[in-house]
Every structure is written in structure tokens, then in C-alpha cells.
Amino acid sequence: MFSLSVPLGKFVRRVSRLRGGGSALPGLVVEKIDPGFMQRTLSTLPHGVAVVSGTNGKTTTTKMVVELLESQGLKVFTNRTGSNFTRGVAAALIGDVDWRGRLEADIAVLELDEAHAVHFVNRVPPRYSLLLNVLRDQLDRFGEIDKTAQLLQHIASKTTGTVVLNREDPRVARIAGTLQGPEVLYFGLDDSLLGTFPSDDELRAGPGSPVPAVPQRPQADVVLRRVGADDADFEYDGVTVTTGMKLRGVYNIFNAAAALALARSICGSGAATADHGTLLKALSEVAPAFGRGESLTVDGLPLDLVLVKNPSGFRLGLKSFPSGGYATMIAINDNYADGRDMSWLWDVDFDSLRADGVDQVSGSRAYDMALRLQYDEVQIGAVDTDIPAALADFIRKGKGKPKRVFCTYTAMLAIRRELSKITTVEVVS
Amino acid sequence: MTPESTAGTTASKGTIRVLQLYPREMNIYGDWGNALVLQQRLKWHGYTPELLEYNVGDEFPEGVDIILGGGGQDSGQLVIQDDLQSRSSLLKGMAEEGTPMLLICGLYQLFGRFFKTRSGPVIPGIGVLDVETHGTDERLIGNVKVTTAEFGEVLGYENHSGQTTLGPGVEPLGTVAKGTGNNSSDGQEGARYRNIVASYLHGSLLPKNPAIADFLIRTAVERKYGTFTPGEADDRFAVLAREHAARRPR
Ligand SMILES: [Zn+2]
Predict the structure, then answer these.
(1) Is the minimum CB–CB distance between A290 and chain B shorter than 8 Å?
(2) Which of B157, B208, B249 sits opposite A341 (nearest CB)?
(3) What residues are paired with A188 via a beta bridge?
(4) Which among B6, B20, B24, B138 is the top mutation candidate for probing chain A, defined by the most A β-carbons within 10 Å of its own β-carbon?
(5) What separation in angstroms does the CA of B249 have from each of A335, A351, B44, B153?
(6) Between the CA of residue B10 and those of A375, B47, B166, what are the distances in Å?
(7) Residue A176 DSSP label
(8) Are A343 and B202 in contact (CB under 8 A)?
(9) Is the pLDDT of residue B42 over 60?
(10) Which residues contact B246 (CB under 8 A, 6 or more apart)?
(11) How far is the C-alpha of A361 from the C-alpha of A340, rounded, in Å?
(12) Cβ atoms A163, A131 nearer than 8 A
């Protein structure tokens, strides 16, 4: 079927590219003149659509799934994160389809924000869904955590093939019991690692109070058994394999187990059957997605940016990146994209920073952060709400030391922008 | 129930027992910060804090001087409901005797007469506070600034869909200067009754509002030891955090 929307959309895309415009306009045009375009195009893919959703780690996990599938020879269509999900996907599709509207890909792997989930899956039921976690994040957007769980449940209920669930997140694992149609697979953690992922429900089980017994858990398709300095053990098909990892942080590596479970499910059920050697090699080479925690070089020494946006993420960040020997800065903004509510800072323990202190605190809520540190008896070098000034001071005083900056999303953007001005920024990973 | 005592560095002026109610279910949006602030400020004032927890099915501890209650998911409120009812006369008695209490969001609602949910069922409260709450479709979310006679300007963050109206038996905590507060009609926030401060504000409430923290501490100490002599509290960051928070958008 020939439709005018594709040539027109491509034309708009070229024009807006030439004018240096964003990607949403062509998507908007196509949506307006041909509302069925996205649905129709995605429905022609031989392996269908896979969506990745959850509070933490969507972007990096989506990237991992794409790279794992590509290592198996599949041609993958994926979306870049953007403002409007549906429009962004439509815009990306316009770029990738041929002039007759055909998408030359085997599968689409899409990062699906919870906010757009219902609208999208009602129009395009996914064949696969991977649901990572439900954490306290941006509660000012979704109201409350149980509401977020319902959004993920809705994605699962619309999935036609396989739903891959986090066995260790009670709100996600619970979704299995509500499903009738799709096959359910899990990814999980070794018992020894459970403690490094305290659930939000156990935030405040005080010392000495009984540890809730680990209930009988279902068999997981992929289990993360061990995390080393630069490698990890995964168990699947009854065998434990060790693989090098470029990714850092336990939570990223747990998401690698999630990506592995989804990729195995997709490859196993299609024409190609997963080749373990190439799959693991691809896994070992995955680097974090842009802006999700990266290592830069400043004055010949590493400067790590660690994105923190909710209590679990901050606690995992502190645990994964011990402060010894590092100069530490924390930058907390409360712009819309960061979340306006500062309550979450009080659900993070900063005891681990007590020994070395925090050299610099910045961001629009620098004083909320400083107050939080004061109550955990952590020494503070300086506080300055102005990020450029604070960063310059931090780099000057921290000469000769590797550096680490824990920052919210918009603070991270400001810091990258600033770093590219004051020094040559060389992205390491 | 878990005692977690911290010995004072110099000679302690006495021990104050702070009880967190249902921290397992009702601990959302940083309400732990309130417990931490009381614990540290008690130390700054020269007293020995003893932090206790009461969860569903626990034995209720003796000699509690301050009670703290937080907010929770709707599901959390259902879990604690029966247990809370079984403790209602005990808690009522403590409130009437003047035990200082801080009740935030979910437990503010459940210390009232009832919570009528949007879908119909009525969750009975324990009637310590003469207030009633009605669930709505609208979620009231954002930064809040409240003007109070007793504690000056009170700053925090609200996130609730239940709307509370006060009966004649309680006073409001204050008048809303930014945000919504108890409900979307009368411009009031929180409730005051005897030594109870009840509020919708998270943030957490006490770190940026040390006047309320010190009210709870002073009241508890005076009830137990007769007089309260404050120590040195370093509130420089609290003052600056308040200034900056007050200027942030809703
Ligand atoms: Zn609340």
C-alpha cells in the first residue's frame, strides 16, 4: 500500500534537519495526516515489538538489549529518548522506513516511559515486555508508587508473547499472578546480592528488627550470581558463566541480567537461536548510555558522573562507588525533570561519606542537601548553589585527586556543559 | 520494636523515648527524616534519644515520650488499619494526657474520624483528631508554604488525594500561602490539638522546620523532667534551606 504520509514525512524531516530543528516535527506531521502509520509499520516486523519499562535503568537496558540482539545478526529498530514518546517513535520510523513505508528491521526495541505506556500499548500491543522495577521516583508525576505498578501491569497485560519480570522487586514479580495470556520469565539475583538491593519497602527496617523471610521465589531464567571489580557471573541453562563487564555499578549489571533474559527469549523463539559466545562478548562490551553515569578525564585524572534521581539509585550509587581516595561533590537540582520534591534525600543514608566528607555541594537545592549531610554528621567543604562556580572550585581544590560527582539529571547536563568549557573533556566510556 | 539508643557525649540531662508508628508501612516520602532530626536535636540539647519502632503485631513499648507517624501508600493504610484500631484507646489516652505527637499525611488522616475512599468504602479512623477525610480524583502535589502563629512560616511538600476538613475540636496548623493544604477549598493546612501537630507536609517536615522539632522536644522534656534547658543547635543550613525552598516554584 502506498501512502503519501511517508514521502511527506521524509520531506519534513529533511527540511527540519536542514534548519537544525528537532526530531518531533516530522513525527507530528505524520501523526496528523496518517494516524495509523506507526501501528501499521511496527506490525509488519517479523519479531514484533519489545518494550522496556520501569523506574530505573530503562535507557541503558534498552541499549543493552539492542546490542545483544544485533550480536545475533538481528536488525533492530530502536528509539532515542525524547520529549514525546509516540511522536518520537513516529519521527524515528520516518527516518528508517523506505519510500514505500517499509521498515527494514527484524524487531523494534523501545524504551517506554511509564507515562506513555497505556496510550502506546493500547495501540501497539508488544510481543515482548521487560519490566525492570518500581521505585520511588518523580512521585510528583505519578502520584504514588502503586500507581506506577499498575501502569507496568497494564503493559504486561497487553503483551502477546513473553513478559520478563524482575523476580526481586515484589511489585513487579506480583504482576505474574494477574496474567493469563503471555509466557512469564524472570531475571533474578543470588541470595548473597539481595542485601545490596534493599527494596523501598524495607527502607527503614531498623537494626534488630526481624528480617522478612525471603519467600519461595520462582525459577529465574537468568540469575546474577556475583559482581566483581570488572567482571560478573551469570547463571542460565543450569550453567554459571563469567564474563568481563565494562558497565560499572551493581544495578547496571543486574539490568544486564534483565537484558540477557529478554534477548535469550527473543532469539530462542525466532529463527536464530542465541549463540552464547557472541552474546556474552556483546554483553561484556556494553557501555552505559549517554548521561547515565560516565567517566570523563579532567587534568589527567578520572571524573565520574553518577546520576542519582531516587533513594534506591542514590544508595546504590554510594554503595557501588566507595568514596575513599576521591574528591566528592553532590549537585541536587529540583527542576521539573529532576522532580521538585526533596523528601527523597531523607531516605538515603550518607554514613558512608562520613570518613572522607563531601568537598562541594551545589545545585538549586544545595542547602537541602547540606542540611541532610549535617544530620548524618558528614563534613562539608563548601556549599554554592551556582553549579559553574561550585564545579570550578571543586576542580581547583581537588587537584591531584580522582573525582566523583553525584548529580540529578539537569545538574548533570549543566556539569557536562561546564566541563567542556573549562577543560578538554575526553569521554572514557 | 527496636531500641536504638545513642549515648550522649557529655553527661546526659535525661533520656527521651521517640516512637515511630508503623515505619514499615508508613514511611514514604522521607518521613524518616523526622525521626532522624528528633534524634540528633535531642543530642544537641543534651538529652539521650532512644528511637523505638512500633509495627503491626508488636508489643506497645512503655514510657513513650514522643510519637511520630508518617505517610504511606493506600495499600499500607489497609495493612495497618486493624492493628491501629486495636491501639485506639491507648493512643487516645496518650493524646489526651498531652504526649507530643507529629502526624504526617496518612497517619494524620487515620488519627481523624474516618477516611471515605473515592471508590466508596469508609476506613474508620481512631478519632483522636476531630477531622474527616474524603478521597478525591485530584492529587494535590507540590511545594507548600504555610503561615502559622506558633511556628512562623512552615515549609514542605504535599502529595495527597485525600481532602481533610477540620471539625470544631481542632485548630488548623496555619493558613496556606503557597500550595493547597488540607483541601482545595478553605486555605487551611494541618491540625493542632493538645500537643499534637498534624500536617500533610513531607519534605521531610522537621529538618526545614526546626521550630516544630523543638516544640515536640521541649514539651516532652517538660512533661518528663519539669523544665527544659535548650542546648546549642546549629541551624545555619536550615535557615538557608528555608530561604531557598521558599523561592522554588510550586
Ligand atoms: Zn503525603
Answers:
(1) no
(2) B157
(3) A223
(4) B24
(5) 9, 31, 33, 16
(6) 19, 9, 44
(7) G
(8) yes
(9) yes
(10) B145, B153, B155
(11) 18
(12) yes
Q: Where are the alpha helices (DSSP H) in A217-365?
A: 250-269, 276-285, 311-320
Chain A residues inside the 8 Å CB shell of B240: 367, 370, 383
Binary contact (B159, A140; C-beta < 8 A): yes
3-state secondary structure of B233: coil
Give the helix/strand (H/E) hosting A107: strand A107-111
Give the helix/strand (H/E) hosting B37.
helix B32-44
**Continuous H helices in A247-362:** 250-269, 276-285, 311-320
Cell of A101: 513505508
Could you give all domains of chain A from N- to C-terminal order, each with its CATH number? 5-285 (3.40.1190.10), 292-419 (3.90.190.20)
Cα–ligand 1 centroid distance for B112 (angstroms) = 15
The DSSP code sequence of A187-213 is: EEE-HHHHTTS--GGGTT--TTSPPPP
**In order along chain A (429 residues), what is the average pLDDT of each group of 10 residues?**
58 54 57 74 90 88 92 87 66 73 86 85 94 71 71 95 94 92 94 71 42 68 90 90 84 91 80 70 78 72 86 80 88 90 92 94 98 97 97 94 92 89 56
Considering CB atoms only, which of A209, A334, A343 is closest to B204?
A343
For residues B47 and B8, the answer to whether their CB atoms sit within 8 Å is yes
> Are residues A122 and A113 in contact, defined by beta-carbon separation less than 8 angstroms?
no
Residue pair A371/B238 in contact (Cβ under 8 Å)? The answer is yes
DSSP state of A335: S
Copy the grid coordinates of residue A333. Answer: 537540582
Write out the three cell numbers for B238. Answer: 536550615
- pTM of the entire predicted model: 0.71
Instruction: Identify residue A148 by its one-letter amino acid code.
Output: T
DSSP B162-211: EEEEE-TTSB-SEEEEES-TT-TTT-EE-EEETTEEEES-BS-HHHH-HH
CB contact under 8 A, A375 and B36: yes
Q: What residue type is A117 in one-letter code?
A: A
- Flag whether the ipTM exceeds 0.90: yes
| Pick from B166, B229, B230, B220: nearest CA to B195 | B220
* Of B115, B105, B113, nearest in space to B129 by CA: B113
Longest dimension (CA), chain B: 55
Rounded-to-integer distance, Cα B182 and Cα B189, Å: 5
3-state secondary structure of A366: helix
